[in-house]
């Protein structure tokens, strides 16, 4: 994937239509869940992202044969688990890979998985993953940076999560699907990515009830069959482009969206004065000629305002005259966008997990993304500036946004990644 910096000249309206990719954060656990079946599985709507390449590298190590059978269609087949060890070099690249623990444990009866690394914005504990698996009967030890898990028989029993955790719910579900026990997960996440994972697993023959509620009941089954499944649209990418339309005071049509997954973002943009029109699986965002109002927001688990859209919203609010207050208690240190937005003239004061934002015009500057959604905040800010912004750290954008420069050009943004000159061409 192209790692050269993203150049963007802003100050122009967005226009037309953008087809939103399918969900990265639903696709990754579904790809991992394919480990539970010995039979081939075809997935549609898999975004071509570096995170997908990373998880496939780990899966290849575990024994999965993967083949792209269409631009966004992937066939996965794991007839045997060849290794029950997910090493540091592969797990540390991406936190989502930690859920292979539950999947390998279910399929092979034992698993050793390296602790996931912390993220650019701070610690992200996995204590709930570990407590859940232990409460359901797995034996877990921690040594040398690895978690080693074994199970004597099928997992069973009840676990009550201490907070809503998407990854923790994924891991506990994956560990519980095979066998003959009954597992009840209480205070489970109702996130769209958990619901999509349950729909996928049930399509392969799992027996999970309660998707979309806080209580999930898993009745173990002896095996999962193969099958075909299409992943849901990416609500975080959709939220990003809705905010981009608002920031540039444009009218933009988003296709391949689930408007019902975007209600918290839509409500905040409406409160600011943006018109949002839902029509089937499309959404029209219209901010033309609007004087947007500042707002306050606090992130929450789904269906609340998503932390994954907080940096983008902070960038938008940095352009809206008046005072906005943004709080991110889900990830209190998710603030790497702030210093970079300062370079573009933003007035943001941070205290704990609270940003107090005094909006006003921004200006182009060289900036660097230190994580995925901070990168999105920067390209949104750049769209509002006359002049050329150069965004470094494109490897983070490649984690979550498919063919970004090309798709930005499709909606009227001047965006490009200059190709480095080959040595031979410079002779
Ligand atoms: C690949 C993927 O899908 N990533 C998403 C997933 O991450 P991830 O699944 O890692 O996030 P969680 O839902 O687990 O985290 C929610 C909150 O619970 C806390 N927590 C979580 C687990 C745990 O064992 N102990 C604990 O304290 C976290 O610190 C956080 O404050 O959901 C996050 C919250 O919507 C999103 O920002 C990420 O983009
Ligand atoms: C934070 C994200 O992903 P991850 O949990 O993999 O870091 C994200 O998608 O915004």
Salient structural properties:
427 residues; alpha/beta; UDP-n-acetylglucosamine1-carboxyvinyl-transferase, Chain; 2 domains; 4-stranded mixed sheet; 24 strands; 25% strand; binds uridine-diphosphate-N-acetylglucosamine; binds phosphoenolpyruvate
Low-confidence parts lasting 5 or more residues at pLDDT below 50? none
- Span from first to last CA? 26 Å
Discrete helix count: 15
Instruction: List all distinct small molecules, including ions and cofactors, that are bound in this structure.
Output: uridine-diphosphate-N-acetylglucosamine, phosphoenolpyruvate
Share in helix: 25-40%
* Integer average pLDDT: 96
Largest sheet entry: 4 strands, mixed
The CATH fourth-level homologous superfamily of the largest domain: Enolpyruvate transferase domain
Neighbour order of strands in the largest sheet = 22-23-1-24
Organism: Deinococcus terrestris
Subcellular location: Cytoplasm
Active site: 119 (proton donor)
Catalytic activity: phosphoenolpyruvate + UDP-N-acetyl-alpha-D-glucosamine = UDP-N-acetyl-3-O-(1-carboxyvinyl)-alpha-D-glucosamine + phosphate
Characterization of the model:
The protein has 427 residues and is α/β, with parallel strands linked by helices. The protein folds into 2 domains: 6-21 and 233-416, Enolpyruvate transferase domain (UDP-n-acetylglucosamine1-carboxyvinyl-transferase, Chain), CATH 3.65.10; 24-218, Enolpyruvate transferase domain (UDP-n-acetylglucosamine1-carboxyvinyl-transferase, Chain, Alpha-beta prism), CATH 3.65.10.10. It has 15 helices and 24 strands. The protein has helices at 24-33, 50-62, 88-91, 100-108, 127-135, 166-176, 192-203, 235-247, 263-272, 310-317, 336-343, 372-383, 394-400, 404-410, 423-426; strands spanning 6-9, 17-19, 41-44, 65-70, 73-77, 85-86, 110-114, 139-143, 146-150, 157-160, 182-186, 207-209, 216-219, 227-230, 251-255, 275-279, 282-286, 296-298, 322-327, 347-351, 354-359, 366-368, 388-392, 414-416. Helix 8 packs parallel to helix 12, helix 10 (310-317) runs parallel beside helix 12 (372-383) and helix 12 packs across helix 13. The chain starts with 5 loop residues before the first strand and ends with a helix. The structure holds uridine-diphosphate-N-acetylglucosamine and phosphoenolpyruvate.
């Amino acid at each position: 994937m192209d790692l050269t910096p993203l150049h963007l000249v802003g100050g122009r309206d967005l226009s037309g239509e953008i087809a939103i990719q399918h969900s990265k954060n639903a696709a990754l656990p579904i790809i991992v869940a394919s480990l539970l079946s010995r039979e081939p599985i075809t997935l549609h709507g898999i975004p071509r992202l570096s995170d997908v390449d990373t998880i496939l590298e780990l899966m290849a190590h575990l024994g999965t044969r993967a083949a792209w059978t269409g631009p966004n269609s992937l066939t996965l087949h794991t007839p045997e688990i060849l290794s029950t060890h997910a090493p540091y070099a592969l797990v540390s690249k991406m936190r989502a890979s930690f859920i292979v623990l539950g999947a390998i444990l279910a399929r092979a009866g034992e698993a050793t998985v390296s602790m996931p690394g912390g993220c650019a914005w701070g610690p992200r504990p996995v204590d709930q993953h570990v407590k859940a698996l232990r409460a359901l009967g797995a034996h877990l030890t921690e040594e040398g940076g690895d978690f080693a898990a074994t199970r004597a028989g099928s997992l069973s029993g009840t676990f009550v999560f201490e907070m809503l955790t998407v990854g923790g719910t994924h891991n506990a579900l994956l560990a519980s699907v095979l066998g003959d026990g009954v597992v009840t997960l209480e205070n489970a996440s109702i996130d769209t990515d958990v619901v999509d994972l349950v729909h996928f697993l049930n399509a392969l023959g799992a027996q999970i009830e309660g998707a979309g509620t806080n209580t999930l009941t898993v009745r173990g089954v002896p095996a999962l069959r193969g099958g075909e499944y299409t992943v849901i649209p990416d609500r975080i990418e959709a939220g990003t482009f809705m905010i981009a339309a608002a920031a540039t005071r444009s009218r933009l049509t988003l296709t391949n969206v689930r408007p019902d997954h975007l209600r918290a973002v839509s409500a905040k943009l409406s409160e600011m004065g943006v018109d949002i029109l839902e029509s089937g699986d499309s959404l029209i965002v219209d901010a033309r000629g609007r004087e947007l109002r500042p707002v306050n927001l606090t992130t929450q688990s789904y269906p609340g305002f998503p932390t994954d859209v907080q940096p983008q919203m902070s960038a938008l609010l940095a352009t809206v005259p008046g005072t906005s207050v943004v709080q991110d208690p889900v990830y209190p240190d998710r603030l790497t966008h702030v210093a970079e937005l300062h370079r573009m003239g933003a007035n943001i004061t941070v205290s704990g997990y609270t940003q107090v934002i005094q909006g006003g015009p921004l200006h182009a500057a060289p900036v660097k993304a230190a994580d995925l959604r901070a990168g999105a905040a920067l390209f949104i800010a750049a769209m509002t500036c006359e002049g050329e912004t150069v965004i470094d750290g494109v490897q983070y954008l490649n984690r979550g946004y498919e063919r970004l420069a090309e798709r930005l050009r499709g909606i009227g943004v001047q965006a490009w990644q200059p190709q480095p000159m080959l040595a031979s061409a410079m002779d």
